[in-house]
Write a structure and sequence with these properties.
The chain has 261 residues and is of the alpha/beta class. Helices cover 41% and strands 20% of the residues.
């Protein structure tokens, strides 16, 4: 096909030509990707509607007392170390409420996503991000705690007093399993997913977290935008026999909270 024929076909149907060009360059059919996306999205919405007949999980508004000392202390530490959990977001309210009764106990916390500031990594915190900020905040807030973290960017891994971090690719279940094998079952009071912010990765991490939670332990997925709430309603229905699940609307986005009964 010569250039004139390509130009004519492009003018007649640009979508098909873009599809062909992308396939020639990347080996991927764009129109096929769109069909798969629409199919998967529609299936999730239908499953969410079906699951609501079992147990509907409504999005709640969080009402933790802002004057509580534990809450204010955690907010100040997030601010001091450069975490957006008490600036752009108000997640400090959630975590203070979940852990305040255990603050002076030897609790264990695991957070996925250290907050890389390397711009070549997906879900980075920008060039001014402070890797490990929330891990250091939790460590200082709970004086007898031990804090673990993981990230796909090995350049931001570190070891510090009562802090240990690991490399982890959330899109690979085998990688999650390998990290999980470092710990006995029921090791953690809190596991946080603040990593890739991809539903596929989030669900992989949910599977990873459930076996590691202590009784009355919590798993929290941060930064859930409204269009993905249906997925988490399905997850809540599947987990309802052994776990209490909540969707909480925070300042900007929502969090999904799983509590082991």
């Amino acid at each position: 096909m010569n250039y004139q024929e390509v130009a004519k076909r492009f003018l007649r149907d640009p979508k098909i030509m873009f599809d062909r060009l992308y396939w020639e360059i990347r080996g991927i059919r764009v129109l096929q990707m769109k069909d798969e996306h629409d199919n998967n999205r529609g299936a999730l919405l239908a499953l969410a509607e079906l699951s609501e007949g079992q147990k509907r999980v409504e999005v709640q508004t969080y009402t933790n007392n802002l004057d509580d000392k534990d809450t204010k202390d955690l907010a100040e530490l997030f601010l001091q170390y450069g975490s957006d959990k008490s600036t752009r977001h108000d997640y400090y309210r959630v975590y203070a409420f979940l852990l305040k009764e255990k603050r002076n106990l030897p609790i264990k916390i695991f957070e996925i996503g250290l907050g890389t500031n390397n711009m070549d990594v997906l879900s980075n915190m920008g060039k001014d991000g402070k890797p490990g900020a929330s891990l250091r905040s939790f460590r200082d807030w709970a004086p007898h705690s031990k804090v673990f973290g993981a990230d796909i960017d090995s350049r931001v891994l570190f070891t510090d007093e009562r802090i240990e971090t690991f490399f982890l690719d959330q899109t690979k279940p085998e990688a999650l399993k390998k990290v999980a094998e470092r710990f006995p079952p029921h090791s953690f009071d809190l596991i946080i997913d603040d990593g890739l912010h991809n539903t596929w990765a989030n669900l992989n991490t949910l599977n990873f977290a459930l076996g590691l939670l202590k009784p009355d332990g919590y798993f929290v997925v941060e930064d859930i935008v409204d269009k993905y709430l249906s997925t988490w309603r399905i997850a809540a229905t599947l987990l309802s026999k052994e776990y209490d699940c909540k969707l909480i609307k925070c300042k900007i986005e929502s969090v999904f909270i799983v509590k082991k009964k």
